[in-house]
Amino acid sequence: MRFAPAPSPQATGELALLEARDVSRVFRIGLGLLRGKRALRAVDGVSLAVRSGEVLALVGESGCGKTTLARMLLGLLPPSTGEVRIDGRPVGVLPRREIAALIQPVFQDPYASLNPRKSIGSIIALPLRVQGMSRSDTWRRKVEEMMERVGLARDLYDNYPSQLSGGQRQRVAIARALINHPRMVICDEPTSALDVSVQSQILNLLQDLRRDLGLTYLLISHNLAVVEHMATRVAVMYLGRIVEEAETESFFRAPLHPYSAALLGSVLTPEPGLGVPAAELGAAFPDPLNPPAGCRFHPRCGRALVRCTTVVPPSVATADGFVACHLHDGQEHPAQQG
Amino acid sequence: MNERVLTVEDLRVELPVPAGTLRAVQGVSFHVDRGETLCIVGESGCGKTLTALAVMNLLPARARRAARRMELEGRELRGLSERAMANVRGNRMAMIFQEPMTSLNPAYTIGNQLEEALLRHRRMPRARARERAVYLLDRVGVRPAASRLKQYPHQLSGGLRQRVMIAMALMCSPALILADEPTTALDVTIQAQILNLLAELQREFAMGLVLITHDLGVVARIATRVVVMYAGQVAEAGTAAAVFAAPAHPYTRGLLACIPVPGRTRRGDHLGTIPGLVPSLVGEMRGCHFASRCPHVAPVCRRVEVPLEETIGGERWVRCVRHAEIEPAPRQERQATA
């Protein structure tokens, strides 16, 4: 492994389309009557850059903060500290409408994210209205063209979400996201509510749209097989922090962080005879209200060193990203085993 | 000789709906031996959950159930009174659900709920029931077991709750466990732990295990035998090794082609798809249920009722009139780009 600094977007002169700079978000959580409130750091000092044209996958288990991070990136939630920049401009000063013109979300549950009382046509057209485009014939034509583009029959224009299948509804959500030609789409678990035969159709569609429209994706997913198939780069989140970032290729070949390795080891490919991989992780998911000192992963880590329990591991640059783990910080670690 | 735990023959479940009668399960047959894991796999609406609920006699009140045979440890379950059935349920067979919170009572401690089955079915003194609860909680990894007994379900994480459900299912040493998507709501690293635990316990207590899932990865890794369901019927059944090595039904092949597999599917390539929609199961249907979506469909498929046929070699069942004509699907075939 090299310890050269990772080529940051600034260094290469390549402007990040979307960037989080040392972003944190704290929620005040009430513990019950008379017990006061505690601070929950859902996202803790995350820096992340999405470059134009790439598919960056954000992976991690439930409660790791990936959805909170996504909401901050979309400008839906202000960070407690740190800054989000879209196309080089701080998100705090951009009007909502401008953010929406650049970045659009597609959410997990197409049953929940579509207004049941609006027709398909008006759901897809909503961003046009938000952007102040005057209603005209071109409006309907634009929507119909987009419906066709995402594989929806034009004659569904006047139908309602309840009349559509799960896959069709997700296509509506994608059409709505793309109607104003954003540069980037944040897909939060876009297929986890769908059957596998429908999932593959949506993944194929997302691939085609990205190629044809030059889109950039931030893909939030817990399904590593989907990530491997879709992403160009992977960022792994654990309890509010990004613990590893790498190109997809090298990440799946040789993950560096023990948590990344455990995640990859848990992927159940449809290969009979291999059995279920032994889970090397401790079962106890740490309390986010009371996160462990040092490396937040150390209570579950099979390779933890003494200093992992007290010292927060720094992010160390690798050939194509970084890793935040004492096993890779270049210092002596006599206790380490293969 | 294998000891048969459960035999189900020609199970039918019908539900009255506004449009007529929904024939949700249409003549499903399978059996489970002691020490064996049978996976029932299929997409939403295929009837897999209703099949399990029918065995447990936990169907919604408006549902009608019929079967030629339904035997647990040689005892016919059809026609048992609700009272007799209640003595079987939780005693000789137990069910584990996807979301443990729906089957745990939030108002009672873990200990109370665990002990209840033994108090009820075995009239055991509470102290002895508690002993077994502590033993099983420790066995399933809910530690320290003795103090966990006093906790309430909401105080546990999702993974721990599912472990409690498993311990509860084991309290009376049942001959059969039915698990409906037991790991779908869990994170991937926890999923591996729970599946390993189920597999271990099943061997240790020589139970039959029926695992219902939509996840072919889970099936491949844990199943002894597989039943693939489609639109209320068994499409294909056989040993996991045989079904995955050479899926015979076009639906099984289609499903396997839909999933991305790291190292096997190429990044960015199109995944396989199954075009079209699952047919409505309301009313009578002629011919093969998969005909409208099948790439190998022939006129004969829509004319005749397709039986589930035993294929060469035995222990292998396929419901497809053309399975012998269509080329066997070698595993490599699904790498091909669409």
Describe what this molecule looks like in 3D:
The complex is a heterodimer of chains A (338) and B (338). With 338 residues, chain A is of the alpha/beta class. Helix content of chain A is 28%, strand content 23%. In chain A, strand 1 and strand 2 form a beta hairpin. In chain A, 46% of the residues are buried. In chain B, 32% of the residues lie in helices and 22% in strands. In chain B, helix 5 packs across helix 7. The longest helix of chain B is centred in the middle third of the chain and has 17 residues. Chain B is built from 12 helices and 13 strands. With 338 residues, chain B is of the alpha/beta class. Chains A and B meet through helix 7, helix 8 and helix 10 of A and helix 7, helix 8, helix 9, helix 10 and helix 11 of B.
**Oligomeric state of the chains present here:** heterodimer
What's the CATH class label of the largest domain in chain B?
Alpha Beta
Largest sheet of chain A: 8 strands, mixed
Poorly predicted regions of chain A: 1-13
Structural class of chain A: alpha/beta
Largest sheet of chain B: 8 strands, mixed
Notable traits:
heterodimer, A: 338 residues, alpha/beta, Rossmann fold, eight-stranded mixed β-sheet, four-stranded antiparallel β-sheet, 10 helices, 12 strands, 23% strand, disordered N terminus, B: 338 residues, 2 domains, five-stranded antiparallel β-sheet, 13 strands, 22% strand, disordered C terminus
Give a quick precis of the structure:
The complex is a heterodimer of chains A (338) and B (338). Chain A is of the alpha/beta class.
